[in-house]
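Because discrete structure vocabularies remain unfamiliar, it helps to consider an illustrative case, giving the amino acid sequence and backbone structure tokens:
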Amino acid sequence: MPTDGATADQAHAEDDLAVLWVPLRGVGPFATLKVERYVGAGAGAGSTAGVDADSAAEAVVKVTLNRPEVANAFNTQMGQDLLDLWTYLTEADHDVRCVVLTGAGESVFCAGADLKERNGMSVHQWQRQHELFERMACALTELPIPVIAAVNGHAYAGGFETALSCDFIYASRRARFALTEVTLGIMPGIGGTQNLPRAIGDRRAREILLTGAPISADRALAWGLVNDLFEPGEVLTHALDVARRIAGNAPLSVRQIKKSVRYGREMDLRTAFRFEVEAYNQLIQTEDRTEGILAFNERRKPVFKGR
């Protein structure tokens, strides 16, 4: 059964996938986030006993932006919490292979920065906070493991920029997307002017950036901004299912693919091809490559160890 306060989307996902959620050990707790490990129905409540540590299910972590009373807006604490989490997932010794990022509640993914907190900030305070948000965004962009955005509702300003920094996006049919900063006398500052044109092209991106007007989920799909749309109660379910599939693949291969796509797109084609070949060659000497070929020939599922 879902815990008290779980959203309909989260409850649907838990019922369909028959899972238990426990806090991710080794990091947190966080004041503004819920960071939970996906462990399956085999363990007792709150326990990971008896669960295969190498299973794809347990290698998935769900991160929930958890300030529903203010539309999951970023305050300074959430910026620090996210920076700490992305840093942990980059640097620490763990077995997490895929992350799903979503928002608490049923109608909003994230409204961007908390403007009530920002009201009355001095220039110095504003700049210090934004430097924190910049580090948070860079840490997400550089994260070596995949992050899927499960956009359960509206994604505005920094919330939209955060979704753009993820590897790909699934969204609710009711979601709307906007970069509203131009209506407030500022501009996107955590990747919006860079990631959006790369995702949907320069002219469409300029329309969104310069008007500040929201676009519908249907238009976001038609423009290639999101991968697919689902009914509100199905977004998280689908994202978690895809995350399990990714987590079942060879983790070193996944990391090298992310690196090749991330850096290769900044290079000319010939240089990018050579970069890809170098990334490929790093995998030939791994135990996972040997296991993958052996498992194929033995007609069984491979057991990848990440080495």
In short: The first strand starts at residue 21 and ends at 23.
